[in-house]
Sequence to fold (208 residues):
Amino acid sequence: MLISTFAQAQDIIYVSDHLVITVRSGKGAQYQIIKTAQSGEKLEVLEESDEGYTFIRTEDGTEGWVRSQYLSKEPVAKDRLVAAEAKLTKLAEQNQKLKAELGSLKKSSGSLTKDHQALSSKLTSQEEEIVRLKKIAARPIQLDNENRKLQQANVTLEKELQLVSQENQILKDRSQREWFIAGALVLLGGLIIGLIIPKIRWKKSSNW
Fold:
């Protein structure tokens, strides 16, 4: 009794290395050879049998049975080598590209470092200029404060000057009054003496 299992279509297998296998119309050497398949040729699995045969379809559409022991799910070494070499070539190209990008980035980094240094220097210069301008800006404020203080001191001095002038005027008026009184006293004394001396002379004349 034959027992077979069916695999889904589109499964892919390969003819093993260094072989030329026959594709037959049935499962066995007694069946007619339809076609031969070379090592590395890609085959489509249509059905698998536990009798050691697989029903396949070739790339040109031919369908038939082949011995399962001559099939592999991996490409042959030659094809794997070609694929590996292609992959290696691609990786080498990517490596060269990455090296070129790295060199470009290094140049950009050097340029950015110079730009950063230049900007840092410019920033330091600007900060120093800001400090200088702040000092200059603070100077008028300081001068204004000093001017206000001087104005206040001037007002105080003017008030003191007014007080001194008033006191001086008072002293001047007092001195004038004192001189007037002294003059008046001297005049009065002179009048009194002028009145007394004639009388004294008259008395002396009378006694003589």
